[in-house]
Target: Lon proteolytic domain-containing protein
Amino acid sequence: MPAAPAAPQDPVAVKTPRRGRRPLTLVLCGALVVALFAVVAIVPLPFSVTYPGSTADVLGEAEGQPVITVSGAPVRETEGELRLTTIVATGPDATIRLSDVISGYFADDRAVMPRSSVYPVGDSTREIREHNAQQMRESQDTAAAAALSYLGMDDSDVSVELNLPDVGGPSAGLLFSLGVVDLLAGDGRGGDLTGGRVIAGTGTIEADGTVGPVGGVPLKTRAAARDGATVFLVPRDECSDAQADLPDGLRLIPVTTLSGAVDDLRALAAGESVPSC
Model:
């Protein structure tokens, strides 16, 4: 018998690739990415740009008046300098864009910080200035109390007034305390606590003499070196920050307490070994 004819096969739909869809998707994605970067580049970002600020010798004068005035006890004539350090920052309402953030990241003379870390309190320049001024007043009172307590003096007999306009915040506490100690007692052996050097530093101070961290240390070391300091006192917890881009010729001494800082400066003045970061 002749072979049965093969059964006709059902037609099969063959999918032809659409060559234009993938490139179109890539183009659209690329356009979205470019648009996103364009928006980010022009939209203000929640950052502040900070720079090395001024320094001030707490053993000297500010606007023609002594920074530290002591009543009720004899005061020494001092040599050398004890310089507190500061940073300056763009205002809370300044416009910071992506280009500022990128350039600040790679720069040595400035840093970009979250605005909330620079201005933790207040939404206006006036509120922030008032807050910083209040912190400075409290820091000065605490610094005087810590110094007198360290020296075993009664604050009912000895009065300390601190005068430093246009500087806010609590980060000068350690240097204020050291200034009071140097004016009243020096190194305890008839010499200066500074050993005639230009000493700079930073750190908050508590009434019991505890030294606390402050932030912005790499910028403060630059300000210190710029103004002639050869030694920088830094809260121990911020040693690693201070070592970043440390200026040549600036020696770091880590501190945790007022008494420890005094001991280290005495040892340094006597040519003895002192700790380092």
Q: What stands out?
A: The longest strand covers residues 47-57. The helical segments are 21-42, 98-106, 115-118, 125-151, 173-184, 217-226, 239-243, 258-269. DSSP finds eight helices and twelve strands in the chain. The CA atoms of residues 192 and 246 lie 26 Å apart.
